[in-house]
Amino acid sequence: MAKCLVLFSGGLDSTTLLVLARREGFEPTGLIFRYGQRHRVEVENAVRLAASLGVDHRIQDLDLRSIGGSALTSDGMDVPRDRSEEEIGSRSIPPTYVPARNTIFLSFALAWAEVLGAADLYIGVNALDYSGYPDCRPEYIEAFQRMANLASRSATEGGVRVRIHTPLIDKTKAQIIRLGLKLGVDYSRTWSCYDPVYVTEERPAACGRCDSCFLRKKGFREAGVEDPTEYA
Q1: d(C-alpha 143, C-alpha 53), whole Å
Q2: Do residues 98 and 64 lie in contact, with contact meaning Cβ atoms separated by under 8 Å?
Q3: What topology is assigned to 3-186 in CATH?
C-alpha cells in the first residue's frame, strides 16, 4: 500500500481528509503542528484522534509566535467574534490568518514525505466555506506543487513526482460533513474552535462565536445534521 502524508489538525476538514485518504487506498501518516497557536487544545485532540484511528503521527514543533502577525499566535490581537456571514464571505483576510502558514506546513510535509518515501501529500484546504486565506486557493496549491517537484531529490533524480491532494477544496462545509458521515467520521471528536473557553481547567468547550465555529455550525445546519459540538 502506498504511503501518504496528511496535514492533520484533528478538525472537521482534516479528519474527513485523513479517513478519505485511507479509503482511497493509501496508508496515511498524520503530521500535526504545534506552532504556538492560541487553540493549542487542537494538538491534544489531534493526537487522540490519530491514535483512535490507528494512524501513525508526528507532532512537529514550530514557534510561530516569534513571528506573530496573527490573532492565533499573538496575545496582542483578538480573535474576531460574532461576524456575519457577509463579513466572513467578503474574502477580506481576517486577523486569524497566520503569515505563510500553509507554505511552512507544506514545506515540512514535503521534507518528511521524501524521507518516508511518500509522494502524496493531503491537505484540507477549502476555497468555498473559508475565511479568505490566500493560501487555501487552487492556484496556490498548483504553484506549490510545481515548486515541490523542482526542489525535491525524489523528483529531480528519482522521477517520483510529488502530488498534493486537495479533495475538499471545492466542497461546502455541508458537503464535507455529508461525505465524512458516509465514511464513518465521528465529528463529536473533532475540534474547530480558534478561541476555546474552559468550562473547567481541563475541559475546553468551543466558543461558538469565532469564524471557525460559525462555519462549523452553518455546515451542520445546511447538511441537516445535528451538530455534536459542545459550545460554551
Answers
A1: 32
A2: yes
A3: Rossmann fold (3.40.50)
